[in-house]
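ingest -> validate -> predict -> emit
validate: passed (alphabet ok, no gaps, 286 aa)
predict: started
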Amino acid sequence: MVASPAGAAEASVRGTVFYKMSGSGNDFVVLDGRATTVDRWPPAEVQAICDRRRGVGADGLVLLAPAASDAVRMTYWNSDGSRTAMCGNAALCSGRLAVYLELVAGGEFCLLTDAGPVRVRSKLASDIAEINLPEFDTEREFGSIPLGSGELWMTLLTVGVPHLVVRVENVEATDVVGRGRVLRFSPTLGESGANVNFIAPRGKAAGWLIRTYERGVEGETLACGTGTVGAAIALASRGEGALPLTFQSRGGPELSVRADLTAGRASNVWLGGQGRLMFRGIWEDI
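emit:
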């Protein structure tokens, strides 16, 4: 990790300073909005910087800009250049980097997203952050989708973005990319489709396993924060788990979810997880 935050000296550096971050393996390129603007990043440029062979490589691009003394605006794009309302792991990483860059003081502050305001708790000396998500319905109506082999049930929720949660017998035996793509584009989920989260118990260890097919990336990502929240709420609503719940993603570090469930609504929803700064670099402006 870099020893000190970016200072005013970086404003004169040719190109755009970026920060590479990881939230349980879900990785992002993050930009300081004091040095660049949203309109500087059309879809083609987002795709270029997120490209894993010819760019920095990331699941998504984040731009952070100061909004008030206790608030930061987070703009998020998927790696395909599409802008989306919310990403839980990107929010965890944004909470960590906002403090690191001194956009806000450490402690509790507000992250303004396209899905609404999100409260963040983050300290400078820790890689762990917590975000408080807006309340949402524990289930959404959608058309009938036949269960596949090894699938026990599925449900649709919106946690910032749509998530289809699929309870399976064995996560490791699931064809996440093949089956995930079929479900993600199912007409019953609407024109925009949904992320698809496959979940199963960890076995002898406490908690749950989760694997995610993410729209916009169009493949499996190593973690999905809002998908993990959706999975926790789906399990608790069906009586298969008692909140708080922990999940092991493919990326390694655990994610934790706590919330209150009342009359089909999830409120006081908190997601805790990693927001790790891995390195800083310069993206040469084209």
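The two ends are 27 Å apart (CA to CA).
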